[in-house]
């Protein structure tokens, strides 16, 4: 697993999907969360697989994620997003 610093996370959060080459974004189709891992390990795995959990793609759809300070956790939002896409919503 990789270790991500706060500075790296801030840089990821500041990414602008409009400036990104969609073909270089990680495709999260088929991504599964491994709930046997610790929370920290799951976070690192998401970062490792997506390269940027704030800016990725689902097939041909580019996705940029933004959060409110008091909003739900990234894992919860990504899980809900992927379940909706899987169900065609």
How much beta, percentage-wise? 5-15%
Overall pLDDT confidence = 85
Note the overall shape. globular
H/E order of the elements? HHEEH
Topology:
Elements: H1 6-13, H2 39-50, E1 55-58, E2 61-64, H3 74-86
Antiparallel strand pairs: 1-2
Task: Describe this entry's structure for a reader.
With 89 residues, the chain is mostly helical. The protein has one domain (6-86). The protein is 37% helix and 9% strand. It contains three helices and two strands. The chain has a two-stranded antiparallel sheet with strand order 1-2. It is globular and about 30 Å long.
Explain briefly what this protein structure is.
With 89 residues, the protein is mainly α. It has helices at 6-13, 39-50, 74-86, and strands at residues 55-58, 61-64.
Notable features of this structure?
single chain, 89 residues, mainly alpha, two-stranded antiparallel ribbon, 3 helices, 2 strands, 37% helix, globular
